[in-house]
Amino acid sequence: MNHVVELAPSELNDWLDAILDSRSYAPKNFNWLGLAEILARRALETGALQWAHLAIKVYEYIARSADKDERDSLLCSEMRVRVHFIKRFGLSKEDSLLDINTIASWFMENTDCSLVSVRLSA
């Protein structure tokens, strides 16, 4: 994984795209969660959207094949990155990372409360 985390964002994006498009393969037993966490930390420390986009891409990739509990945890981590960057840069429909609808949809899909019951209890 050392080689991968040393890549520039554009190179890492190309590497990820090749894997996602089945044009290449990751090394056997590749630590995808470790990569996602490294990228998320790098994004948060630098404030760079390019690292955040890469972290989100990896979290989403892992979540596709995860069981429900692991998927919930991965998506929660993804949403934390999104919220951090929305707080930093504001909302933007032009950038999927900064689009509040992604977070709102995720929240509504993962809550047991309806909007009506929330309004009634407020």
Task: Please supply descriptive tags for the structure shown above.
mainly alpha; de novo design (two linked rop proteins); 70% helix; 122 residues; globular; 7 helices
Q: What features would you describe in this structure?
A:
The chain has a single domain, classed as de novo design (two linked rop proteins). The protein has helices spanning 2-5, 9-20, 32-46, 49-64, 68-89, 100-109, 115-121. The radius of gyration is 16 Å and the shape is globular. It is an all-alpha fold and 122 residues long. It contains 7 helices and no strands.
SSE layout:
Elements: H1 2-5, H2 9-20, H3 32-46, H4 49-64, H5 68-89, H6 100-109, H7 115-121
Helix pairs in contact: 2-4, 3-4, 4-5
Number of domains: 1
Radius of gyration: 16 Å
Largest sheet: none
* CATH top level label: Mainly Alpha
Number of strands: 0
Shape: globular
Cα distance, first to last residue? 48 Å
CATH architecture: Up-down Bundle
How would you classify the helix and strand content by structural class? mainly alpha
> What is the averaged pLDDT score?
90
Q: Helix coverage percent of residues?
A: over 70%
Strand residue content? under 5%
Low-confidence stretches: none
Supply the number of helical segments: 7
- N to C succession of SSEs: HHHHHHH
For this structure, the CATH topology is de novo design (two linked rop proteins)
